[in-house]
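User: Here's a protein and a ligand (FE2/S2 (inorganic) cluster). What would the complex look like?
Assistant: Let me lay out the input and then the predicted complex.
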Amino acid sequence: MAPAPTSTYSSITLSVNGDKHTLTVDHRTTLLDALRERLDLTGTKKGCDQGQCGACTVLLDGRRTVACLQLAVAAEGRAITTIEGLAEGEQLHPAQQAFLDLDGYQCGYCTPGQICSAVAMIEEHAAGWPSAVTDDVRPEAGPPPLTADEIRERMSGNLCRCGAYVSIVQAVARAAAVRAETTATAHTTHTTMTTQTQGAA
Ligand code: FES
Ligand code: FES
């Protein structure tokens, strides 16, 4: 049974994958332990438990973070997305599909973290964030080409002890290409509809 709130325990409500969960936690409980031990969301993995391997990567308000270094109480009020929340029903997220199609894993232990990290990384890149290997970091230069070096650098916080890096890089590149294609199609559709609407006015 969950302990009652005291000076060292608090009742918090976490929003995970669109669902709200109210639980009482020790203030020292990490978000990783709350997800795995209290909410049974075991897709998020514990590797090093000290912020070095990336296995526990989740999204907080769309930004990637390592859940082992976040306190659960500090995640209240944020939108938490775990690997369990990426698919839309039976439809896998493009990053999940790319990892599957291109064998971006061996044992699979690092894979949930790799995929969550990739999802946010692709958005960071599309928003024009430079990395340590970006040649032209001027904002007006826009996003650099998403080369293998860029992907490796941007994904360097996610370790894979199986060494599946070659396939992981390919899978991330595929997911980024799908995202770019989807965005371009949505833009074309929006432009066409706007033109038609204006023409009809
Ligand atoms: S378990 Fe969190 S970074 Fe390794
Ligand atoms: S697939 Fe085994 S640790 Fe990455």
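Summary: The pocket of FE2/S2 (inorganic) cluster (ligand 1) is lined by residues 46-49, 51-56, 66, 68 (CB under 6 Å).
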